[in-house]
Sequence to fold (355 residues):
Amino acid sequence: MLFQGSIAPSHRALVPFVSVENMLALVHRHGIALCLSELTDYVEADFRRWELFDKTPRLASHSSIGVIELMPTSDGTDYAFKFVNGHPSNTKRGLQTVTAFGVLASVETGYPQLFSEMTLLTALRTAATSALATRTLARAGADTAAIVGNGAQSEFQILALASVCGIKSFRLHDIDPQATRRCMANLEDMGLSLTPCASAEEAVEGAQVVTTCTADKRYQTILTDNLIGAGMHVNAIGGDCPGKTELHRDILLRSDIFTEYTPQTRIEGDIQQLDEDHPVTEIWQVLSGAAKGRTDDRQITVFDGVGFAVEDFSALRWLRDRVGDHNVAEPLDLIADPDDPRDLFGMLKRYAGRA
Fold:
């Protein structure tokens, strides 16, 4: 059974559930380019009203093999959270490195309005956020991007840069050549120029935009200082936990750095390599006009993106708006809803009688 035309009325206490199958159908019917473009606009709209949101670094439970996190936020009307893990060794077991699910709820009642898979949705919103940063910070006329790290996120990143920023030429590198071949095969016949490269140095040659999206949870130098020239924009999006970096510290020292929520990025992003008082700018400040972004064509800009709860809020808000358009949600009997709200036990007793 699917919801017809819109979200089910709250008095039914049935929660719209978007399964993986539902999400695949939505992206297929709506078109991935349009999904990414719309998501970018939703993220931008929420960043422009940043000061309305509750903000806290994600709540993380770390282990020697990975991390499990909760990412909550609210704008005072809606509340959202995401459950997400990061386990790089999962691929050796044939499992995903990252999985997620999330909930959007009403602040007024506390009732969930939407329950959804967020493994696919997170990939879409992460790519949309990179595209937003690129649209905001890259120099005008950028037409070539390097994608260093061709894992599960790479195709989404490429399609977002193409649909949002008009970039059509991509230079790809991964330490696993098979990952690059898979990425190129997945994107064939999409009107893009895709060039496999044997090294990160070869990949960044001629690129005005560089995106690093690697998964290894260690201090890494994916890009060395000599690879980043004047005028380049870098999306460093692989950082998502303490002790994981992608950029050489010297790149950061000669760049203007932009973050989502700086207290979280100082824990998890590339700027964990820098002093606590090193100046950075939150990207919402640029979008709202409170701070400057790119000021000249020779400036190096770095978006140190670690993912923040407001982006998940935006993604769930977008999904709520799209569910009715494409009839892609199932009613989930998630909330106990007795006839008398004070008689929850009576609901249990009546069921026993029927059974």
